[in-house]
Amino acid sequence: MLTGLRTEAGFEPIPSELENLWMLQDKMIVTTPESLDQAPGELGQAHKLRHVGPVLEPERHGVRVTLPWPDDPRIPLVLVSFSTAPEQGSVKKFQNAIDALAPLPLRAVVTVGDSIDPAALRPADNVAIFATVDHDDLMRLASLVLTHGGHGTFMRALKHGLPMVVVPGLGGDQPVNAVTAEAWGVGRALPADADKGAMRVAIREVLNTPSYRDHAARISQQVAASDGAREASREIELLLPEQAQRPS
Question: pTM, whole model, 2 decimals?
Fold first, then answer.
């Protein structure tokens, strides 16, 4: 798709093989913390890598919502986000999450995006279901995020210092982020097909174990202090004088 768009715009096509594409670049900007991108073994052309931190701009599709309960900071709030992409939609997974949360002494907000029809889910008294919400808005109130572990949600939760329970979906980064959540001590990783019982046990453990939130709060200082968009722009600007000096 990218090659087609470049060709239509009058640019040369880019190599379709990842190895050739990797070798072609003068610089590869990675919008994640370097600590999340550690791989075993030697990486060819690693000197081209520049980790600039996550780009967490306001979500254009997010809207502020009115929750159906009075404010009570004594009651934990859980945000459930299993991706807004239709290809990752799973009624069973969302329903397992709702059923896991229903008997617990907490409140939860489930966001489904375009992945499924909210009407396909059976609600619970302590679980509100929305198509879209402003995640930053809710994360300021939340105590935990139950998520698929996509990079955006993963980084946004850490920015707010929130622990997680990660149930990976289809994205290639999601199992890696799930393992990282446990390695960093910020949450629990569950199998992709985790049932409501496994989710409930993990939610209880993370909410009742202060170390998960403590570790997330420490990492949040690193994530919140970075500005991936600004650093990426700086890396591009640093490259421009080098390009201008090259013979044409």
Answer: 0.85
